[in-house]
Amino acid sequence: MKLRNHLLLNVFLLLSVLVVLVPFIWMLTVSLSPSSDPFRRVAFLIPTSFSLEGYLQVFQQAPLARWFMNSVLLTSVLTAGQLMLGVLAAYAFARYRFRGRETLFFFVLCTMMIPPQAIMLPVYLVVNSFDWVNSYKGVIIPHIASAYAIFVLRQFFMAIPRELEEASRVDGCHSVQTLYHIYLRASVPTLFGVGLIQFVNNWNDYYWPFLILNDEMKMTLPVAIVQFRNDSYIEWVPTMAAATLSVLPVIGIYVLAQRYFTESSLQSGIK
């Protein structure tokens, strides 16, 4: 009985993995197919003939390096800002007592429940009033604070014994030193885990950069990928080639930070 249940569980997990991987395999398969009728040259998600035409077309016809650097710049700055503000806000919510703290934190959590599309128009009007349309400031500043980062880091900070903070006060540490020596050093895996999730979300963000950035040379990779189309059809092979290249940095970062991400999940579950 246990063997059968174990076998069924393995089959279910295998099917789940296949369901998740099929879109990525299809993307890679189309990107390696010839430009002429790529879908007819695919059998069971495997191209019947391989070609690098799509990748050559991407590098020859598009400023891919510029789009890549735009994505790296915006994603890095935005993620760093979200972590910095998240740490400061989480420390204040976790350790300071002030009037309206719980109410304010409740409103922070409420922002996680509002679909981004619901507030795009008012945020766009504010950005437009500051003349930040078609600028990196218009992409970064409206999303520089992350309720998710604040929530996760606050929960972790609250699990740290207050005696450690009191001991640092006795040793002469002020608030900034206590935050660095006690809280930040203890939360390195959590910071890596939150930073990885935020980096992936920021890297894959399409709607807001598409709404703000009009200049082709300022576009990020998710926005620029749709440039391989005209009024009548989409050039699927170069589009999938560009999409495949845009996924590689995220995979690389996850592989390098996987240990910290796992530690963050385990610590959150234990505490």
UniProtKB/TrEMBL annotation:
It is a multi-pass membrane protein. The keyword Isomerase does not apply. Residues 68-257 form the ABC transmembrane type-1 domain. Pfam families: BPD_transp_1. Gene3D superfamilies: MetI-like. It comes from the Bacteria. InterPro entries: MetI-like, MetI-like_sf. The chain crosses the membrane at residues 7-28, 67-92, 104-127, 139-161, 182-200, 236-257. The keyword Cell membrane applies. It is found in: Cell membrane. Keywords: Cell membrane, Membrane, Transmembrane, Transmembrane helix, Transport. Belongs to the binding-protein-dependent transport system permease family. This is L-arabinose transport system permease protein AraQ.
